[in-house]
Amino acid sequence: MPWHLRWREQLSSYLPLLVMALLVLASWWLVKNSPRPLAPAEERPVSNEPDYTMAQFALERFDAQGRLKLRIEGATLKHFPATDRIEIEDAQIRAISPDGRVTLARAKLALGNGDGSEVQLRGGAEVTATDANGQPLVMRSEFLHAFLVTEQVRSHLPVEVRLGGNALRAAGLDYDHGQRRLELLGPMRAELTPRAPVPARAAPAPRP
C-alpha cells in the first residue's frame, strides 16, 4: 500500500482520539479561565455608632385619624441601630392620650425606644400629668422611667411629687394612671396644705 494511503488510514483511526483530546483541553481551558463564583458576603456586625443625628429637631407622631399623639423636641437626637434606641439631649416630650389628656416630660438626657413610647429621663427629670380627679400631678427626680402609652412612671431614686397644693418626698415611686395608683417607696415626708375652713351656716331665726 502506498505510503500516503497508509498515513491516511492511520490518521483516520487516530482522529477520534485527537478530537477527544482537543475537547478535554478546551474544557480544561474554559474551567480555568471562567470567572469564579463570588464568595458569600460576610454579615457585617451592626455598628454601635449612631446611623443618623439631628440637631434642634421636633418630631411628631399622629394616630390613624390624623390627631397628634406625640411630639418630641430636643437639642440633639442620635439613633443607634444596634439596639434601635434614641438618645436625646435637652428632651421635651408631649404625649396626648386618646381622651385628650396631656402628659409632659423633660430632662437633660432621654434614652428611649425607636417610637418614643418608652423613655428613661436622666438629670432634672420631670413628668407632669393629671390624677384621676383632674388635679395636676408633677413628679421630679434625677431619674424617671416613663411609659407614655400605658401612662406609667417609675423611679428607684429619691423623688418629689406635687399633687395639687401638697408636696411629697420619697425614696422612689410607682405610678399607674390606668389603675389610679400612686405608690411612694421608702421613707416618705409630706407637706400638706390645709383646706380652707368651710364657713359655718347661720342658724335660722326663730319664728314668732
TrEMBL record:
Highest rank taxon of the organism: Bacteria
Chain segments annotated as transmembrane: 12-31
Keywords in alphabetical order: Cell inner membrane, Cell membrane, Membrane, Transmembrane, Transmembrane helix
InterPro entries for this protein: LipoPS_assembly_LptC-rel (IPR010664), LPS_export_LptC (IPR052363), LptC (IPR026265)
Cellular-component GO terms for this entry: outer membrane-bounded periplasmic space; plasma membrane
NCBIfam families the UniProt entry points to: LptC_YrbK
Name of this protein: LPS export ABC transporter periplasmic protein LptC
The organism's taxonomic lineage, starting at the top: Bacteria, Pseudomonadati, Pseudomonadota, Betaproteobacteria, Burkholderiales
